[in-house]
Amino acid sequence: MADAVSRGGLQPGTGDEVRLEMRASDADRDRAAVVLGNAVAAGRLTTTEHAERLDAVYAATTVGQLAPLTRDLPADQAADAGIAAVDHADVTARFSKVIRAGRWVAGRRTRLTARFGALTVNLVDAVLPGREITLDIDAFCGKLIVIVPAGAQVIDQGGALFAKRAIYGREKPGGADGPVIRLVGDARFSKVAVYRGNYDLRDEQMPPWVRQLVASRSREGYDG
After folding, report:
1. What are the pLDDT digits (tens) for 28-42?
2. Which of 64, 78, 139, 156 has the most CB atoms lying inside 10 A of its own CB?
3. CA torsion sign, 122 to 172 to 128 to 144?
C-alpha cells in the first residue's frame, strides 16, 4: 500500500476502494511528504504549491485523502529511504564557518551544532517536512544564526549559560498559518540569533561601526 500511496495509484471504484477508506499511518504521510519534497526540489511544484499540499498531507486521515496529493507526480522509488531524512538532519560547524542556505531539505528534527565555529542556517527557501520542525541546538563557544520565513512562529525552549539567545523581527499578524519553528537545546558561551524574513549575510562581513551606520541611515531614510 505504501508504494501506491506515494504514487497516488489507488483508484476509487476498484478493489482499492476499501484501502482508500483505510486510516493513514504516520509512515504513509511521511512517504507522501518525501515525494512532495523531491518534486519541489526538481521544480515540478512551486514552494506555494508544496506548502499547500504538505499541509494537506499532514492533515489527511485516510489513504484516499493522500492519494490525490501525489497523483500527478512521478513515482519515487526512494520514498522509503527518504523518510529517514525527513525525520532527522544535522548541520555542524566545528572550528569553521558553515552556511546552509537555498533549497535544502530540513528534518522534522534538525540538530544544529556550532562548536568554536559560526553556523548560519537559512530556512526561508528550505523544504520543510511538516508545519512544525524542531531545531536542537548545541552551541559551545560559537555563533549560530537561524533565518526563518517571515510568517514563522518561533518558540524558544532552550537554555543558555553565559550566552545570548534572541529572536529578531516581529511576528506577522495572522501568522498562525505559518510554520512553527521550535528551538530546544543549550547555548554555552555562545550567541544564538533567530531572524524572521530576509537577513543579509553580507552584514557578517561588516565591522560593527559600519553596520550601525547603515542601520541608522536606513531609519533616517538616507538616500546617499
Report:
1. 887 888 788 778 878
2. 139
3. positive
